[in-house]
Write a structure and sequence with these properties.
Elements (H helix, E strand, L loop, with lengths): L2 E12 L7 E12 L3 E5 L6 H8 L7 E6 L2 E2 L5 H11 E5 L10 H11 L6 H11 L15 H13 L5 E5 L7 H16 L3 E6 L2 H4 L4 E6 L2 E7 L12 H5 L2
Parallel strand pairs: 3-8, 3-9, 6-7, 7-8
Antiparallel strand pairs: 1-2, 1-4, 4-5, 9-10
Length: 245
Amino acid sequence: MDHLIYLNDVYKIYGEGLESEVRALNGVNLAIDRGEFVAIVGSSGSGKTTMMNILGCLDIPTYGDYILDGELVSELDDRELSRIRNREIGFIFQGFNLIPDLTAVENVELPLIYAGRHGNRKQLAMEALKRVGLEGRAHHKPSQMSGGQQQRVAIARAIVTNPPIIMADEPTGNLDSKTGEHVMEILKGLHADGATVILITHDMTLAREAKRTIRILDGKIVHDSKIDGEDTFGREASYESAASL
């Protein structure tokens, strides 16, 4: 298998001292293969958001190694983490996070600007909007669109740089069920096109749409299984094996 992500004995600890210390991640080992569709599921306070922040290079572990595509990223500085995010990861958030004063196409162009891309930014942004069926709304601002349309703009923004990883944090949380189903179909389509999709959710029904479900509780992985019934719990990451790829 073509391994993409390794967490090796990862801890994320907040606070100091026994009374105030919170172990948001508590010795997590995880391997995700390139091209997987994985759901990380847990209730509020389980550690799933911290897991997303680590996997998405928005934060670094207190202890342990995170290896992404063969690169040890757990000790990188903010500038280097930003470089990894721009190159490797497209984010989809529950709150859309669109800039209200920008049109849809201008919002989608933003990752290209951050990545220093010039020339055909508008064309690439329009192509991304077309992939999510919103080319007809390219010049509308967020306030002129429904929640579902705003989320599709957010998806277009996430995929415009063609990142190998799509990270979706509760992407249907602010949507009605029918619109949520449409968003999930888009995510499935991105997976079918070869993207590694990581879905963060509290909803087991939504998690079952993925090909692999990882359940987290109190900062630990307590269940890890694939849709075909294969139990992958205990498949530990190791720095040595990752470094040899």
